[in-house]
Amino acid sequence: MANIQVVLLLSPLLALAFCYLTFAADPASLQDFCVADTNNQVKLNGFPCKNPAWVQANDFSFSGLHNPGNTGNQFGSAATLVNVAQIPGLNTLGISMGSLEVGFVTSNPDNRLFSKILQKGDVFVFPVGLVHFQRNIGHMNAVAISGLSSQNPGVSTIANVVFGSKPEISTDILAKAFQIDKNIVQQIQWRF
């Protein structure tokens, strides 16, 4: 039975922190789900399945990450453990951790790339306003948890902003900025 550890962002410095979890499931499930029947005394590979007629949406969710942990310890931090005891719908899903490549690029003229491969439990800080990225390099789905310094930070995907603006940015301007042929700019704009 695998556990999932969720790191709480507890200080202003970590407000920009980046940590991640990766979730994966065993292939070829025999059923849609097997919500844990935690009251059953029989223990199999995980818990026995609850009768599907008794399953509710709450069996697949957890509320509690909004509650601050006790940070009055020697480490000055707290972690909230979330596993099948808190989310019965995790039963038999084979949850595991993976890796993520992250990085950012400094401003002109240096345009210096800072990049790192993160493993479970790692944190990475993106400086405010710099172009940054994250890419799943594992063989499973990845979920990123980010702390941002704005109540409504928004998202700007560079390709969508530049090539998908309404109305379109002139192909002449984009061709000159990217130093590419206008026909290539038009082909890219057509995709958006």
From TrEMBL:
InterPro entries: Cupin_1, Germin, RmlC-like_jellyroll, RmlC_Cupin_sf. Keywords: Apoplast, Disulfide bond, Glycoprotein, Manganese, Metal-binding, Secreted, Signal. The lineage of its organism: Eukaryota, Viridiplantae, Streptophyta, Embryophyta, Tracheophyta. The keyword Glycoprotein applies. GO terms for molecular function: manganese ion binding. The keyword Ribosomal protein does not apply. Mn(2+) binds at residue 132. Pfam families: Cupin_1 (PF00190). Disulfide bonds join 34-49. One of its GO terms (cellular component) is apoplast. This is Germin-like protein. Belongs to the germin family. Its main location: secreted. It comes from the Eukaryota. Residues 63-186 form the Cupin type-1 domain. Residues 1-24 form the signal peptide. It is found in: Secreted, Extracellular space, Apoplast.
